[in-house]
Amino acid sequence: MAPPVSGLRELRSRRGEMRSRVELLLMETQARVCRALAQLDGAAAFSVDSWERQEGGGGISCVLQDGDIFEKAGVNVSVVFGHLSEEAAQQMRSRGKTLKTKDGKLPFCAMGVSSVIHPKNPHVPTIHFNYRYFEIEQADGSKQWWFGGGTDLTPTYLNQEDAVHFHKTLKEACDKHGPELYPKYKKWCDNYFYIKHRGERRGIGGIFFDDLDSPSKEEVFQFVQSCAEAIVPCYIPIVKKHCHDSFSPEEKLWQQLRRGRYVEFNLVYDRGTKFGLATPGSRIESILMSLPLTARWEYMHSPPENSKEAEILEVLRNPKNWVH
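Structure for Oxygen-dependent coproporphyrinogen-III oxidase, mitochondrial, as requested:
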């Protein structure tokens, strides 16, 4: 979609380094997803916005708005470096990180690809994915590194076949690297995307992991690569299946109310949003790219018993195992 943030010459000169390999994976993922979405929509193209961060690094934001199928689809790559703010460092310490600063400074490099896709049709689910790499240089010159990420689905209405297809595709990607990974990261996803003040999950989950630094850097990279390659096959078939489904004004209203829940989670709980807002020089437009164009909050709204709306709420309150 655009030249990489670090420049092709620099990436080629250090092609053996993990930072270069990760950045190229992020760029490839962005291009692959954007091509698939644009081809499917047909009516709108991605705007490509390259930006620089004064403190170090930059990013490429690709956003499609008001298409035939997608109301808003954003796929953002960021590669930033500099010194962690105290607020960001404190957030990491709260997760058990031991960070040794030098003169109060902590050099870091963070890179990731992040996307949220909001379709127009309430029978097409929203998808979110994020894969990232973090590296910190401590006062003694040693480096800490870890990967994080995941892919999760947020349908307005429950479709059992879609849920099974989505989870099965992610499970197959995980199983290449160990049978224990999918159940572990599926459970982590259910627990992470939990809107505590509502008592419900944001969606029907997927996989999520963070602070992943074992068994080895190479093995974790290969795992993350498999997860990134599963994004298009886990989602695009669902979009094709439902993008021309008919829907009522009442179903559109329910989609708007569910989007309100999506906004609540992202602004109140999401770790990536919090880190971005706490990092000096962050690009706010890219951080808040995940928010839908439209959403709705109604006072004391409650769906009728035994309705399709109540059906999805039951799953959000009590997560299911979709594949075994």
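The chain has one domain: 8-80+111-317.
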